[in-house]
Amino acid sequence: MRKIEHIGIAVKDLEVSNALFEKLFGAPAYKQEEVESEGVKTSFFRNGPNKIELLEATNPESPIAKFLEKKGEGIHHIAFDVEDIVSEIKRLQDEGFIVLNENPKKGADNKLVAFLHPKGTNGVLIELCQEIAD
User: Fold this and answer.
1) How many angstroms separate the Cα of 82 from the Cα of each of 27, 32, 79?
2) Coil/strand/helix, residue 90
3) Are 42 and 33 in contact, with CB atoms under 8 Å apart?
4) The VOC domain covers which part of the protein (predicted)?
């Protein structure tokens, strides 16, 4: 893992939260998109070298909807940039971590992603991210 790629925050209303974070950072989101496979709409903000991803559920069965129902708004995950997501998944499995999706899938912001179960990471959902080459 090379660096923290972004911090994901689950929100009930993306428009309201976009306005809040725009005031906080003094700049609008640089990217918004929907990831249908995950049932989520996202907005990305930059703050210096750091990125924040806001996530709103688009259906009641999505992981974000379930998270919001159980825990309310707040930090959902920490994402780490990796050079080779397939080898990193293998390495972490060999170390005993529970990988929620053994095959990387397309995520937001032009990334391949995989997640580690929070039961094995002190209650924090960890996302692995690899930039998709154009």
Assistant:
1) 27, 23, 10
2) helix
3) yes
4) 3-131
Checking if the pLDDT of 91 tops 80, the result is yes
Please write the tens of the pLDDT for every residue from 70-84: 999 999 999 999 999
Q: What are the backbone angles phi and psi of residue 96, rounded to the nearest 5°?
A: 100, 5
Under the banding of pLDDT at 50, 70 and 90, the label for residue 134 is confident
Alpha carbon distance 43, 31 (integer Å): 6
Provide DSSP, 17-45.
Answer: HHHHHHHHHTS--SEEEEEGGGTEEEEEE
Instruction: For residue 126, count other CB atoms closer than 10 A to its CB.
Output: 21
Question: 3-131: what fold?
Answer: 2,3-Dihydroxybiphenyl 1,2-Dioxygenase; domain 1 (3.10.180)
Q: What is the pLDDT of residues 39-48, one digit of tens each?
A: 999 999 999 9
